[in-house]
Specification:
- The protein is of the alpha/beta class.
- The protein has two domains: about 200 residues, Rossmann fold (3-Layer(aba) Sandwich); about 180 residues, Rossmann fold.
- The chain is built from 16 helices and 14 strands.
- Strands 3-4-2-1-5-6-7-8 form an eight-stranded mixed beta sheet, sandwiched between helices. A six-stranded parallel beta sheet has the order 11-10-9-12-13-14, sandwiched between helices.
- Helix 1 links the parallel strand 1 and strand 2.
Length: about 400
């Protein structure tokens, strides 16, 4: 690893914590790189989900954890269009050694790739899981079909490398086209920072969980997360386990959450489901500390930050086989991997809750996997090595 200092710019459509994993990951990557001689700047918009905006100064550097962050006005919601961000990139991108672009099918990634290429600055693309069948077919499929050959293919073609966060994500992307399959790529997981939470604080915040065994879901409230499957599974768990409560933590559209709540009523489990909303910081860590089992039943995940966080906290974890890190979880015996199926989820939940020795083994293996694969210092070194190799090639 080179001792030379590097300046890197990370560009992402939004840093709103309401968007879950991507916003968390950029900040965590920045913190992991900072001790390794990387002067890091983040450029983004003031988007805060739906029609909301972050209450932040615009167009000027704000120091967050020792990192300069520039926020720009989001003029239009679709694709988070920001003309201020575009103007800033045009004027400033040349001062950086490298640009790390997070997302595709977004205004920020298009303009960042365009200006980096024009100014001769190498850039890395992290697709955020959109280069898979689920992402292409379930999120604005018509627009993506038009945009892929005209815009995204060009951004990928001129990138110095594609950054995948799991081998499963890389394999799915490779199936799209030979051009993507043969382009330079690396697999570097996301850094997951250790969280220590207070169970008592969480139980005081949510007294409904007092004296209950907690089954935890913590992620965005979104259709791809398989929350309907989880509700169905929870409803069919052995009724003798009557001391359990399902905590669903996360933010999403009000209409979708209302539909989920109606489903819980129909399943007659509404009194055993706690809708905790978005959790962050110490209260989020407290949720992991309180959980006896964590479930991520997604239909598609290019990594699975929430599951990796649970693993780092030593929580026995159940994931669907559509979560990209499921192979690592299965191989390490750090959790249970099931199909996206309510019956399999229910059986897995019952097994963890009924067999404490088994749950303890999963917990120990999870802690070991986290230390080996997701520790920030290890991930930071991999990213720095990638930056060094690209920087040396462009001199």
């Amino acid at each position: 690893m080179s001792g030379r200092r590097l300046s890197a710019l990370h560009v992402i459509p939004s840093l709103s914590r309401k968007h879950g994993g991507p916003s968390y990951a950029v900040r965590a990557m920045a913190r992991a790189l900072r001790p390794l001689g990387v002067d890091l700047t983040i450029a983004t918009t003031d988007d805060d989900g739906d029609d909301a905006r972050l209450n932040v100064p615009l167009g000027q550097p704000i120091e967050e954890d020792g990192i300069n962050v520039y926020y720009f006005r989001r003029e239009l919601l679709p694709y988070k269009i920001s003309f201020g961000l575009a103007r800033w990139l045009r004027s400033n991108v040349a001062q950086f050694d490298l640009v790390h672009i997070h997302a595709l099918f977004s205004f920020s990634s298009t303009v960042a790739g365009h200006y980096a290429y024009r100014k001769g600055v190498p850039y890395v693309i992290r697709p955020l899981g959109v280069l898979n069948i689920y992402g292409l077919e379930n999120r604005r499929p018509v627009l993506k079909k038009l945009s892929m050959p005209l815009v995204e293919s060009r951004i990928l073609r001129y990138s110095a490398a594609i950054h995948y966060t799991s081998q499963a994500e890389r394999m799915e992307a490779a199936a799209i086209s030979n051009e993507i399959a043969t382009h330079r790529s690396v697999v570097v997981p996301l850094p997951i920072e250790q969280q220590k939470g207070n169970v008592d604080d969480f139980r005081k915040r949510f007294p409904q969980v007092a004296n209950k065994r907690v089954v935890l879901f913590l992620s965005r409230i979104d259709a791809k997360k398989g929350i309907e499957l989880l509700l169905d599974a929870f409803a069919s768990v052995d009724p003798q386990l009557n001391d359990i409560v399902l905590v669903i933590a996360g933010a999403g559209s009000a209409s979708y959450q209302q539909a989920l709540q109606e489903r819980a009523k129909e399943l007659r489990i509404a009194d055993r489901v706690v809708w905790a909303g978005h959790l962050d910081g110490e209260i989020k860590a407290g949720a992991f500390a309180a959980a006896e089992v964590f479930v991520l039943s997604s239909h598609s995940e290019n990594f699975g930050i929430a599951a990796a966080e649970a693993i780092t906290c030593g929580v026995p974890t159940i994931v669907s086989d559509q979560v990209a890190i499921s192979d690592e979880i299965r191989t390490s015996d750090a959790g249970i991997v099931v199909r996206a199926d309510a019956k399999e989820l229910a059986l897995a939940i019952q097994r963890v809750l009924a067999d404490r020795e088994f749950a303890s083994r999963l917990s120990a293996n999870a802690t070991r996997l986290a230390a080996e694969s997701y520790a920030p210092d290890a991930v930071g070194r991999q990213l720095r090595e990638l930056y060094d190799s690209i920087s040396s090639e462009t001199k």
